[in-house]
Design a protein that fits this description.
There is one protein chain. With 296 residues, the chain is an alpha/beta fold. 25% of the residues lie in helices and 25% in strands. The protein has helices spanning 34-40, 64-73, 88-99, 155-160, 168-172, 186-189, 212-215, 232-237, 243-253, 271-278; strands spanning 17-21, 24-28, 48-52, 80-84, 107-111, 118-122, 126-133, 139-146, 152-153, 177-179, 182-184, 190-191, 198-202, 220-224, 257-261, 284-287. α2 (64-73) links the parallel β3 and β4. The radius of gyration is 22 Å and the shape is globular. Bound molecules: zinc ion. Zinc ion (ZN) binds at residues 55, 57, 135, 204.
Length: 296
């Protein structure tokens, strides 16, 4: 919903992404105007119960007051979980104190850990981790990782071997089946579940190989590419990356695809971002656009 860096442009808002996993919506960063983008792109934003804020530069969280206020005006009842640097708590308290007279719902704040990778959320299907990246101030990336589901029973084999319901769970977990004294091997009556998918979000960060183990083999890597090669010095001064840096990380992490974003507002042509990243990374390089949907 936002693919620009610090300054929004008429085409690109500041950072925000929505991750939809099995119709649960997770908001990652919340730049100014994120609630407008949610409306513009027709996203059912009441499904958002979890918001992850990577760091406290304004372009990543100044959308919170408006979104929190709108939820309240619309009479939200469900808890809203916000994850971010510890001092974000003060900002949220101030929103509650100064902007809102009465909160219709509760905000539950979870401080992030900036020293190591940590699981911050888990449900039956999914785990979400935070991990430190290298920026001017404490900053986290996030990894969305599906769980490996049990094997699926082949429906026809339930009829063929008259498998009783009570045994199905054990078979899904790998047990063989005793069919009147004949052992039917598990692999004959089940198929493997789909391979779990992973999405890694890395913003804002200098080139840092230490993040590679955190995101290894993810299907899709979002890596910031604020600059091109011509601004490499500026990138290191400001703890940002170039498209080539992002390509190197994607290559070393063996990422399936690379999504670039957080572009400096000075750039109007984005082909060189693809070209420079592709010189070091063989996979598909995608330029983030506001309103773009990617399916894994
Ligand atoms: Zn930043």
């Amino acid at each position: 919903m936002g693919s620009s860096s610090a300054l929004p442009t008429s085409q690109r808002n500041t950072t925000a992404q929505l991750v939809n996993h099995a119709e649960r919506f997770f908001l990652v960063d919340c730049g100014e105007g994120t609630q407008i983008q949610l409306r513009r792109f027709n996203l059912k934003f009441f499904r958002i119960d979890h918001i992850f804020i990577s760091h406290l530069h304004g372009d990543h969280f100044f959308g919170l007051p408006g979104l929190i206020n709108t939820f309240n005006l619309l009479g939200r009842k469900k808890d809203l979980h916000i994850f971010g640097p510890a001092s974000l708590q003060e900002f949220i308290n101030a929103i509650e104190r100064y902007i809102l007279h009465h909160m219709s719902y509760e905000i539950i704040f979870h401080p992030l850990n900036f020293s190591e990778k940590e699981m911050i959320y888990e449900n039956k299907l999914l785990k979400i981790f935070s991990f430190p990246v290298s920026h001017k101030i404490p900053t986290c990336g996030f990894l969305f990782e599906e769980k490996k589901l049990p094997r699926n029973i082949i429906k026809a084999s339930i009829e063929k071997y008259k498998i009783p319901i009570q045994q199905i769970k054990a078979i899904k977990d790998g047990a063989d089946f005793d069919y009147n004294g004949t052992i039917i091997p598990n692999t004959e009556i089940t198929i493997d579940s789909p391979e779990p998918r992973q999405y890694a979000f890395c913003t804002d960060t200098a080139y840092d190989e230490q993040i590679i183990p955190f995101i290894k083999s993810c299907n899709l890597l979002y890596h910031e590419a604020t600059f091109l090669d011509d601004m490499e010095e500026r990138a290191s001064e400001t703890y940002h990356s170039t498209a080539r840096h992002a390509g190197k990380i994607a290559k070393k992490a063996e990422a399936g695809k690379l999504l670039l974003g957080h572009f400096s507002s000075r750039y109007k042509n984005f082909k060189p971002f693809v070209d420079q990243a592709s010189e070091v990374y063989d996979g598909e390089v995608i330029i983030a656009e506001d309103g773009m949907t990617l399916k894994l």
